[in-house]
């Protein structure tokens, strides 16, 4: 994940998530906006709304929040933290591929289920909790409109991810 690499190579980034961003970080967030826009349009055109409304909603929130970072050239570090969530997406997507290939009863699926759950806790739940905490602790340094967007974004994303975690647990571990 390029976001994780940015934090490793530029530890000063973790001290200032608002105004500091290393070379390429702004571009990474801008490309991510493009990806989420493309995926949003693809889902609108190729999937039924009742199948994709949650992801469309998720993508809308990400596009708005990342779009602010790209347009203002601020909060790029915060957006990079949010991109850490996507590390887990590798295993969520692999899970979908294995399901579509009817490989549910394989060692590969079981192993992926365990890794998926572990990365889900670390890179989704813990990251979102950390972001919520950071936003709350830094509220005096964030303009009210940006703070409102961030707070609403976290208030939407956190329950969505907790619900998905419950579904994964139920589906892969408590059948």
UniProtKB/TrEMBL annotation:
<keyword id="KW-1133">Transmembrane helix</keyword>
<dbReference type="GO" id="GO:0005886">
    <property type="term" value="C:plasma membrane"/>
</dbReference>
<keyword id="KW-0472">Membrane</keyword>
<dbReference type="InterPro" id="IPR006634">
    <property type="entry name" value="TLC-dom"/>
</dbReference>
<protein>
    <submittedName>
        <fullName>TLCD2 protein</fullName>
    </submittedName>
</protein>
<dbReference type="GO" id="GO:0055091">
    <property type="term" value="P:phospholipid homeostasis"/>
</dbReference>
<feature type="domain" description="TLC">
    <location>
        <begin position="1"/>
        <end position="175"/>
    </location>
</feature>
<dbReference type="GO" id="GO:0071709">
    <property type="term" value="P:membrane assembly"/>
</dbReference>
<dbReference type="GO" id="GO:0007009">
    <property type="term" value="P:plasma membrane organization"/>
</dbReference>
<dbReference type="InterPro" id="IPR050846">
    <property type="entry name" value="TLCD"/>
</dbReference>
<feature type="transmembrane region" description="Helical">
    <location>
        <begin position="53"/>
        <end position="72"/>
    </location>
</feature>
<feature type="transmembrane region" description="Helical">
    <location>
        <begin position="148"/>
        <end position="169"/>
    </location>
</feature>
<keyword id="KW-0812">Transmembrane</keyword>
<dbReference type="Pfam" id="PF03798">
    <property type="entry name" value="TRAM_LAG1_CLN8"/>
</dbReference>
<dbReference type="GO" id="GO:0097035">
    <property type="term" value="P:regulation of membrane lipid distribution"/>
</dbReference>
<feature type="transmembrane region" description="Helical">
    <location>
        <begin position="78"/>
        <end position="94"/>
    </location>
</feature>
<feature type="transmembrane region" description="Helical">
    <location>
        <begin position="114"/>
        <end position="136"/>
    </location>
</feature>
